Amino acid sequence: MIKLNDLHLEYITDEKGEKKSVILPMSEFEELIEDIEDLAAVAERREEPAISHEDLIIELKKDGLI
């Protein structure tokens, strides 16, 4: 996950010097979008029941996936 201090931000300001917009490298923008999507997926699945590692292995073997 990208950290705020690692971003190379440039600000667009108004005539009073107040920050109005941000410019950042495309690669950093894409990484931020990926992080947001990951966090949204975690939030959506938060209420799903957990499964132990042992039970997962048993289920994968039963399904012929390992």
Give a structural overview.
The protein has 66 residues and is an alpha+beta fold. The protein has helices at residues 26-45, 53-62; strands spanning 10-13, 19-23. Strand 1 and strand 2 (19-23) form a beta hairpin. The model has no long low-confidence stretch (mean pLDDT 96).
β-strand amount: 5-15%
SS element count, helices? 2
Q: Order of helices and strands, N to C? A: EEHH
Q: Strand order within the widest sheet?
A: 1-2
* Radius of gyration of CA atoms, rounded to a whole number: 21 Å
Inertia-based shape: elongated
End-to-end CA span: 30 Å
Helix content: 40-55%
Oligomer: single chain
Largest sheet: 2 strands, antiparallel
The overall number of domains is 1
Q: What is the typical, i.e. mean, pLDDT? A: 96
Structural class: alpha+beta
Number of strands: 2
In terms of per-residue confidence, which ranges show pLDDT below 50 for 5 or more consecutive residues? Answer: none
Give me some keywords for this one.
about 70 residues; alpha+beta; two-stranded antiparallel ribbon; 2 helices; about 15% strand; RelB-like; Prevent-host-death family protein
